[in-house]
Amino acid sequence: MKIISLNKGLGALWYSLILGFYLCYTPALARNTLQNSVSKQQFKINGTITDGTSPLPGVTISIKGKVTTASISGFNGQYTITALPEDTLVFTFMGFKTVLEPANGRKTINIQLQEDITSLQEVRVNAGYYSVKESERTGSIAKITATTIEKQPVINPLAAMQGRMAGVNITQETGAPGGGFSVQIRGINSIRKEGNEPLYVVNGVPYASQSLGNSTTAIGILPNSLSPLNNINPADIESIEVLKDADATAIYGSRGANGVVLITTKKGKEGKSRFTIQTYSTVGTVGNRRTILNTPQYLALRREAFANDGITQYPESAYDVNGTWDQNRQTNWQKELIGGTSYGNNAQASVSGGSATTQYMLGGTYHKETTVFPGNANYKKGVVNSSITHRSEDDTFHLTFSADYSTAKNNLPGTDLTRLSYTLAPNAPALYDDQGNLNWENGTFDNPLSFLEGSYLSNTQNLIANTMLTYSIVSDLELKTSLGYTTTQISERRTYPSTIYNPFDNIGTEAASLYLNNGTRWSWIVEPQLNWKKNWGDLKFDVLVGTTFQHQRTEQLVQNGSGFTSNILINNLAAASVIEIRNHDVIDYKYNAIFGRFNFNWNNKYIINLTGRRDGSSRFGPGNQFANFGAIGAAWVFSKEAFLDTSVLSFGKMRGSFGITGNDQIGDYQFLNTYEGSGNNYNGTTGIQPTRLSNPNFGWEINKKLEVAVELGFFKDRIFITAAGFNNRSSNQLVGIPLSGTTGFSSLQANLDASVQNSGLELELRSVNFQNTHFNWTTTINGTIIKNKLVAFPNLQGSTYANLFVIGESLSIQKLYHYTGINPVTGTYTFLDYNQDGSITAPDDRQAIVDLSPKFYGGISNQLSYKNWQMDFLFQFVKQDARNELYSSGLPGTFSNMPASVLNHWPQNGINAVSQVYTTGANPEAIAAYGRFVDSDAVVTDASYIRLKTVSISYTIPTAWSKLFTGKLYLQGQNLLTFTKYKGTDPETNASSFLPPLKQFSLGLQIGF
């Protein structure tokens, strides 16, 4: 460095001497030169650099031809540089096209950089324990960034991923706040439903996705308890990467069988302190309503049902048709019970910045939203996100610390009113009487709002903290240690006061009950790592070895109290006359592993990646606690070959991988004899009872993964295509082996030589359709075709699983009766008699197979920008079958409203009608036929859909308007339109008991200064 500086100094001196000598002997020229130098004095140029929506920090600004003059844009995208009037400024930034802008004497030059798709191949993606360039990646990794996440008004990060990643199928379970999502990465691997969850890693710290909520407390309002992922604030996320194939997941060993979701939160960046404030408000409604019977249609149906049953005198309890209720009254119960508007408000503030060696970030978010149900139910969440990044002056030591703390309070009705909104008679009485009290219509009406007297309340606190220490021992050898800690606490309360019952039934407070659930989970993890990188010419080695030590403890106490003297005391368990401990668990889970990676890269064209891990888990018995997993990935960047003409093909890569991962998601202590308190008292002593038989011999599930893929870029990567075929096979399945009833247990946990296969094809297309200074248009398409199949299951027909699975079919099948129409004589539903024994019985005649797993899914997104305007929208599509509205509509003719389709009935519409003969419940043959009908393939229909999932329109406030701040106004929408033939409320949830995902609109403002 000193020699270079000296040479530059001598060069400057030499040129100065020549110039001085020249000027001394040419006085006229000297005078002209001095006059020109005065007219060309240097001046300062200021400005702001953006990507069209947000400021760009770290952009290099230089002067063409003058390598010694350069500047860097700050965190707010602003810069200052000194130049001459005739100079040309050069703006360069990784991932964006270089811009040359003549100074022309201007003092303010604002620049909008455009993405350079070609250079995006050099962007690094997070692979967990290491990062890798896109162009050199051997594994299958899907990614979305904050730019995509922030355009969606969601409170769960999983919602931001829907429809955007090939091979990742995400389904929202309910529209109620705090609800969960179902996540499948390349299909279902385990026969056990609970064994298919991916591994979540937040800032390098494993995050348990299993809810601490209890089904007893959440039943009726949330399908599968609270989702722990709600604790992570989407606005704090920098990127989400999903690892899918063996090459990407094998380094996580037993925890990578179902894929890995890596969540990285935002960190501070170098520059002046920058303050950002963002606020938005959201309104949400149920997007679709069922078409059900109006009052005339409903009463006609009821009267025909009584006539069919030979009942001429309406019973006293038939309030809807006997004149007790108004025959002309009509209420839209969907509007009354789930037709409200959900209001949400979100406020977020952050400060970040730092020097070249130390950067910081501190942010806080407050979110509140209501529900579409009547009443004051609401969900509140507060989040604090902080980080510090530091490096030493000599760049040998790095420290990164991040901590995310959240607290949430979810106050919901005790019961989801969605199902009642479909089934209440349309002429049922008003909800309130003349005095404004709940109307019971003299005891004839079970008022649905009485369920709001009960409540569901949950309080959660969550902390995720991580410290990463890195020290460069020598230039090629790096020692790294990751230290992580997480803790989650939950308190749930569910009340059933006696006021939920009809007061005319004379049910007292002795029937009131309280359910409590208190859970705590904490975990620490330490992962020392050693990384060696070495280059020998065109040959590069990257070696990583490390070890993991993790300890997790879960404590949970579920209690039930009943028999209160007053509803006022229902929240006090001590006031209950009967107290029952339903569950009390203290569970320790310990995990230890050694992992490694060896990466070989020759000339950036030929790449081999080896990963391996030896895992040890406390969930298995002695002798089976350890297992080995590993993978090999390879890539050939053939576009770098000299023989290939790259005028059209700008990038080409073939890659493949094969490896083995495992699964230990079986719960704890499964290999031991376990006991629990019986609750029975004998001579003053409470006894215990066995709950599980021991089996110390079972071990890990094994998942073998194979993938072959090709990546092609055309016309400087303006068109980029990725196609990947995969075949995953999971064996050594951990299932309950059925036992004889004489043992006292229904099953024994053991490994079964059953195999499940997931095979499919993933396609991704990215195209830059139009790109110039003012207008840009980019399209991204992803699609996945997938087939799940049970390959082997020894003695399946002799097991209790015979009625659930079929070899060669998906694990998502249902074995149902095959519907054959309506009996022309009796008017009842008929079904195929498979065994031809003259009667329709289960399971012998439930042999029709329907597959409820998605056949293919994906999304189409577009990003358009014109000057300061930007528009983004995503269409999500799914091809699938599901049970329709007839599955849960009830027996046509009974005291319950129905879908309008049942008007197509026998005998008026013959044997091809939708509904059989109406009955009030007095026709035994019709009742039996209906019971088979809802368990038949007649109620399974096409539930495919195309949904306008998200729309975002934003306007960036021009910097010319204000030199004090940058700003953006935006309007966002979620679940706006759905195109489907599905007969039901929502094809995504295809359930009638829970609220569907809401249609939402958000209006927001973001300001930075």
Outline: globular
Average predicted local confidence, pLDDT: 88
Largest sheet: 22 strands, antiparallel, barrel
What gyration radius follows from the Cα positions, in whole Å? Answer: 33 Å
How many DSSP H or I helices?
10
Structural class: mainly beta
How many extended strands? 48
State which percent range the strand residues make up.
over 45%
End-to-end Cα distance:
38 Å
Helix content: under 10%
For this structure, the quaternary state is single chain
Low-pLDDT stretches are 1-39
Short description:
9% of the residues lie in helices and 47% in strands. By secondary structure, the protein is mainly beta.
List the helices and strands and how they pair.
Blueprint: H1 2-24, H2 27-39, E1 43-50, E2 60-63, E3 66-72, E4 78-83, E5 88-92, E6 99-102, E7 111-112, E8 124-126, E9 131-133, E10 141-145, H3 146-149, H4 157-161, E11 168-172, E12 181-185, E13 199-202, E14 205-207, H5 215-218, E15 237-243, H6 246-249, E16 260-265, E17 271-286, H7 295-308, H8 333-338, E18 342-354, E19 358-370, E20 378-391, E21 397-413, H9 418-423, E22 455-474, E23 477-496, E24 513-536, E25 539-564, E26 576-602, E27 606-617, E28 626-636, E29 649-663, E30 674-682, E31 685-692, E32 701-714, E33 719-731, E34 733-738, E35 747-752, E36 755-771, E37 775-792, E38 813-816, E39 819-822, E40 829-831, E41 848-851, E42 856-866, E43 869-879, E44 881-883, H10 924-933, E45 940-942, E46 945-957, E47 966-980, E48 998-1008
